[in-house]
Amino acid sequence: MNQTRYWLNQLGASGDAKRIEQHSANQFSLSQTSFSTCPFEQRDWSLHSKTLDLNQETGRATARHVVFRIADVPVAYTPYIDFPIDGERHSGLLVPTFGRSSQSGYEYRQPYYFNLRPNMDATLTPAYFSKRGLGLGAQLRRLDQTQTGSLFANEFDSFVLPDDRRNERTRYEYSWNSSGQFAKAGNYNLTLNRVSDDEFLRDFGNNIDQTSLAHLESRFDYRLRLANWNLGLEARRFQTINTNIQARNEPHRIMPRLTLGRDFRATPIGDLSIRSEFTRFEHPTDQRNQGNRSHLHLSLSERLGNNSIAITPRVHFQSTHYQLDATQNDPARNLTRHIPTFELDSQLSLIAEHGNTGRFQGELTPRLYYAYTPYESQQALPLFDTGLKTFSYNTCLLYTSPSPRDRQKSRMPSSA
């Protein structure tokens, strides 16, 4: 066939050719051809080749003497290229990346993709830095599903520079992300992060989020719902990579935290909520408090009214107990704090219909909120994981986002 147009439906691609020869039901040879996934009327990009061989059995195409064009402007040439045409994953070279920085010099990375199994793949990325030397990046991904319905996903990423000529040492980073959903036994998330030195992300980070990190977090979370109870297990630790942060100011490690909670709806005394936790806090230095913290939070509420007007009184009781280890300056000690809180939340819903058919509605919801927490000095209590909360509607008006465990605010305002 001469002067022909063709379409590859699976890939959503099309092109034209001076001549097409069919060798079998699934093998074709084209000469003086073009190839693109753009419509014929608007070719934003296209590949033009002297010859193009299509093999639908293998899902691959090979082209020779290829010119890559953006619109009608030639921007690149290669004597040979091999690429997939069936939309499936195939092993092969990926698009390289180039760069330059004052610390590493000129940079070139060439990833190669391995399609190992339907549920597993890998990518190896050799890298060259003109001021540092050769490095190697690797990524391995795997997704598994069991016959019982459990689902597991794993991803491992790493990079190593065996001999950094600028720093005269081995540089590396690695991360492992794993998550799983058990059919009847809850779910988990695991994240491990590590770098060889404090300057690694500054030297090799690709964006400001990486280069500005102060701590690398590694954590494990497990959640289980059993007989309407929510159970949790958590562990967390950090690698501090900001050289301006002193060791005593590094965050505490959570090793571990156990949580237990349940909501009882429409009981004879109202809606009852139970939240409890036990946490072991550790610190890399003996200059900061370490120890155990047990916390119990009970709340009881009852909504009175209807959809137009409602009043919700709510009572909270929080009890926190500390078992602190001995430090350089203080002996081992036990501390306890009990704090009640009373809330009264009221709201009125005013709805007006607009338009001849009433299809448009306007709603105004005035709200009056009152909370009272008696003052209690908390200066003797340690600061394990307390920090400033992000300002939002819930945190400025309502109690529904509790304060950190180590500090509870005294409340005597009313808000509208």
List the helices and strands and how they pair.
Layout: E1 2-8, E2 13-22, E3 27-35, E4 45-55, E5 60-70, E6 73-84, E7 92-93, E8 97-101, E9 105-109, E10 112-117, E11 120-129, E12 133-145, E13 151-164, E14 169-181, E15 187-195, H1 200-204, H2 208-211, E16 215-226, E17 229-240, E18 253-267, E19 270-282, E20 291-301, E21 304-305, E22 309-324, E23 333-348, E24 350-354, E25 360-364, E26 367-372, H3 393-397, E27 414-415
- Ends distance: 79 Å
- Range of strand content: over 45%
Regions with little confidence, pLDDT below 50 for 5+ residues = none
The count of DSSP E runs of length 2 or more, i.e. the number of strands, is 27
Would you kindly provide a written description of the structure presented here, covering whatever features stand out?
It is a single chain. The protein is mainly beta. It is 3% helix and 61% strand. It has three helices and 27 strands. The protein has helices spanning 200-204, 208-211, 393-397; strands spanning 2-8, 13-22, 27-35, 45-55, 60-70, 73-84, 92-93, 97-101, 105-109, 112-117, 120-129, 133-145, 151-164, 169-181, 187-195, 215-226, 229-240, 253-267, 270-282, 291-301, 304-305, 309-324, 333-348, 350-354, 360-364, 367-372, 414-415. The strands form three sheets. The chain has a 19-stranded antiparallel β-sheet that branches. Strands 1-2-3-4-5-6 form a six-stranded antiparallel β-sheet, with no helix packed on it. The protein has a two-stranded antiparallel sheet with strand order 24-25. The protein is extended and about 90 Å long. The protein starts with a strand and ends with a strand.
